[in-house]
Amino acid sequence: MPLERESEIGTLHAMGPGASPPESKYERLIARAKGVGAAATIVVHPCDESSLRGAVEAAELGIIRPTFVGPKDKIDAAARQAHLDIRRYEIVDTQHSDAAAEKAVALIHEGKGELLMKGSLHTDELMRAVTASKTGLRTERRISHVFIMDVPTYHETLFITDAAINIFPDLDAKRDIIQNAIDLFTKVGLGTPRVAILSAVETVTSKIPSTIEAAALCKMADRKQITGGVLDGPLAFDNAIDPEAARIKGIESPVAGKAQILVVPDLEAGNMLAKNLIFLSKADSAGIVLGARVPVVLTSRADSVRSRMASCAAAVLYAAARRQTLDRVVV
Description:
CATH superfamily of the largest domain: Isopropylmalate Dehydrogenase
Structural class: alpha/beta
Order of helices and strands: HHEHEHEHEHEEHEHEHHEHEEH
CATH class of the largest domain: Alpha Beta
Radius of gyration: 20 Å
Oligomer: single chain
Number of domains: 2
């Protein structure tokens, strides 16, 4: 195991009930997740070292209780190659990745898991099973993705949405995208979010349709069609995250200069923004999909140990909050 990875894992294991508050924004999420108990997690097609190790390490930290779904011989081979002991975990054998995705969704319907975790299959394969009209996990809410960014140069945990699923969302889709992000922010224990709806400028103009949609979304929040967050928009990126830029532009707003959720006009803008932060600002990026019956953890082979743990932690905290809400309703 590389020394850097050993160091990360050691830091994560060192966090216990009596430990002092960790420095990393992600480690605070992970510490919270350890406090709510492990969530039953369906891990879909973990047939390479990266996806398998991520699930095993999250299980060893007490964040998840994984069930692996996929070709058993490939999962066993990946475990042997990575020197991982997976004998304690259940494996549901399937022929291939498509079958694994379909079986994973079926297990959620059977109440066998509180969240899904992507393995080494393509995102499209997993999401095709999740969004299937008859057998999938759709709800009335639009499905969307949230990047959870730990940007070294920014003091807040920064959410970016949607940069992975909805390509050109309309106004109704953006309402759901924003509500999904607000729900995640509050359910992981970060408080009431300041939500900036981004465009190229901070004034409303018919020449830039995203500014009109931003203004409409803010009015929807005023009318309680979006709840749980403080919204402002349109805002340009600079005056959304930099107080001095907001001051120079004369923008007086509880959001401007200190946004915590950035809502992008479309997937292209969001994807470029997230990758700029990752590669130019050395940000870490975790992410989950919301709007389905359970949260979906999307991991990448390029993710660090801390990013994979943060994705799991956010999904676990979200699932735990939903569980408590259902328990109160039942009582």
